[in-house]
Amino acid sequence: MNEVNFVQASNLKEKPDVSKIGFGTHFTDHMFEMTYTEDKGWHNPQIIPFSDITISPANATIHYGQAIFEGMKAFRQGDKVVIFRPLDHLNRLNNSARILDIPQVDVELVHTALKKLIEIEKAWVPAQRGQSLYIRPFIYADDGFLGVSVGKSYKLYIILSPVAAYYSHGFSPVKIMVEDTYVRATQGGLGEAKTPANYAASLHAGLVAHKKGYDQTLWLDGVERKYIEEVGSMNILFKINGEIVTPELDGSILSGITRRTVLQVAKEWGYPVSERRISIDEVKDAYKNGTLEEVFGSGTAAVISPVGVLGYKGEDMVINDGKIGPFAQKMFDYVTGVQCGAEKDIHNFTEVVAEV
Amino acid sequence: MNEVNFVQASNLKEKPDVSKIGFGTHFTDHMFEMTYTEDKGWHNPQIIPFSDITISPANATIHYGQAIFEGMKAFRQGDKVVIFRPLDHLNRLNNSARILDIPQVDVELVHTALKKLIEIEKAWVPAQRGQSLYIRPFIYADDGFLGVSVGKSYKLYIILSPVAAYYSHGFSPVKIMVEDTYVRATQGGLGEAKTPANYAASLHAGLVAHKKGYDQTLWLDGVERKYIEEVGSMNILFKINGEIVTPELDGSILSGITRRTVLQVAKEWGYPVSERRISIDEVKDAYKNGTLEEVFGSGTAAVISPVGVLGYKGEDMVINDGKIGPFAQKMFDYVTGVQCGAEKDIHNFTEVVAEV
């Protein structure tokens, strides 16, 4: 019943030089599509040629934002193509769906469809270390009327984009500004979901940070404006006096797949790990007394992103002399090693989905 | 240069029986479209046949929610068509644009285009009192790549939908649930903008309220969870001991056009008016000591929406015996009277835009 149909594109695109393209600018020849209606539920799963999509000008998502997405990556390992933790990502898609009142998808079916899509598009998976095929599943309410209510029809797509190594000039620390004016999400809001609202709320602060010379924004909680939340495109971790500390999952931050990878591996390596509330004042104090050893982000895009400078209220904390810390380096090497096959994958983080 | 072109639809639709259709389900024959690109700015303003629109599957708004909208109404006054406070709505569109980092529009140009559109579609403006032609301008980021950043290309549309009287069974009080779990918007967030994020954040609480037998949700502030904010589709006002009290515009609620109309008229009628923080405890106390005379919402859709029941933490406050209060009735009659031409429009709230 739910077999995934395949409509082949009549013309295949020329593949770009991945090292010269930005993130998410080029897409492969095909995409996966599935439709939800009240009477049929999720139906008509099919792989079709990549093309523009058509919506009503009264589309519920354009007006009221009922949408969610995921982001994961496929890598070349010699003659194999693997995806990093695909089921974790698809289960998180369903968690976002729950928060936005979008009907749950059949993870097994979408997983099957994703593997079929990657098999078809395997020639698009870049072979160089650091490069990957970015996988973007997304769901949006497709109703074409203007009432504010939970949608009755949805579309799910998976689109694929070959992406360069995140660090085009080599793995290097970023400058992060701690945001004390704008709020991304708060308790009781949508912060735990991968949904457009959280990104819309981050745009202006991102501009302000860039103007001040920072790469990204570190969010504080919306209530007390003192507890660390996340960086918007990644979770944040601190190494303080030997311990790995990261904000607990309190409903206002994303439950990062790379975050849980890092925490699991760090524990196995023997580091004390703590998921708890951590205030910006505690970070400042640790900086002052010399116990703030490392700060780094974790996320699908960059895997590990060492923070060289943390700016707060006009003052810059320079972390580990602005250099990559040894823990961040070791974790980056390990996780990217598992992804490219240089490290043995003892946790089964990767799943082989195609042979080239 | 910025003349508004007109491409006429080849087939005109049959007009529906407005009394039998829901809100925002039917659209007129034409719509206004304008395009923004970095090199040309806003350009190519044109009125074209109403039709579906085409977006990239990587569309920035579907993924990251950079969009805004407005809602206003056109009414028949005998042989004339008027719009209620169109420039206030278009200026508020630009305020939302500022918050979402969307390029400002030329209000004069959009105003001209709107009048031309209504002139073309004037036969769609329903003639019965209470019915209207709902006007929905909206702007969305139209970029087709997956980076989280402020868009470089945008589309603006204005679509028109004939709508029935809001109170199909007569002007009557609603049941409102005070929401103490979920948060719509908070200080430092997007609450002041008409943007999808705020509506996405309201969907789940709306479902919960409906399941508990309430019509809508009254939001509390996201920090202390005690100060009254708004109802999501309308602002909220209280009549306490003869005074009209409404939450101040603090950045997390919408600056309603009907709200400002009501406050201005109430002052002229000699009522004391106060825009200030008001806590749910103050409302409860006023209810208990008998000084909570009326509660009502204000918004473009309903104009005035008397609240008959206010539920908070499982207890219902029955306002004015569940009946429409005299102030709400008087204000409803006055504003709808101005809109339909039964009342003299001494404030120039309405603008004549077409003759039928």
From TrEMBL, chains A, B:
EC number per UniProt: 2.6.1.42
Recorded metabolic or biological pathway in which this protein acts: Amino-acid biosynthesis; L-isoleucine biosynthesis; L-isoleucine from 2-oxobutanoate: step 4/4; Amino-acid biosynthesis; L-leucine biosynthesis; L-leucine from 3-methyl-2-oxobutanoate: step 4/4; Amino-acid biosynthesis; L-valine biosynthesis; L-valine from pyruvate: step 4/4
Taxonomic source organism: Pectinatus brassicae
One GO biological process term: L-valine biosynthetic process
Modified residues annotated as N6-(pyridoxal phosphate)lysine in this record: K194
Catalytic activity: L-valine + 2-oxoglutarate = 3-methyl-2-oxobutanoate + L-glutamate; L-isoleucine + 2-oxoglutarate = (S)-3-methyl-2-oxopentanoate + L-glutamate; L-leucine + 2-oxoglutarate = 4-methyl-2-oxopentanoate + L-glutamate
Example GO molecular function: branched-chain-amino-acid transaminase activity
Gene3D superfamilies, per database record: 3.30.470.10, D-amino Acid Aminotransferase, subunit A, domain 2
Keywords: Amino-acid biosynthesis, Aminotransferase, Branched-chain amino acid biosynthesis, Pyridoxal phosphate, Transferase
Keyword presence, Transferase: yes
The name this protein goes by in its record: branched-chain-amino-acid transaminase
Source organism superkingdom: Bacteria
Cofactor: pyridoxal 5'-phosphate
Family: Belongs to the class-IV pyridoxal-phosphate-dependent aminotransferase family.
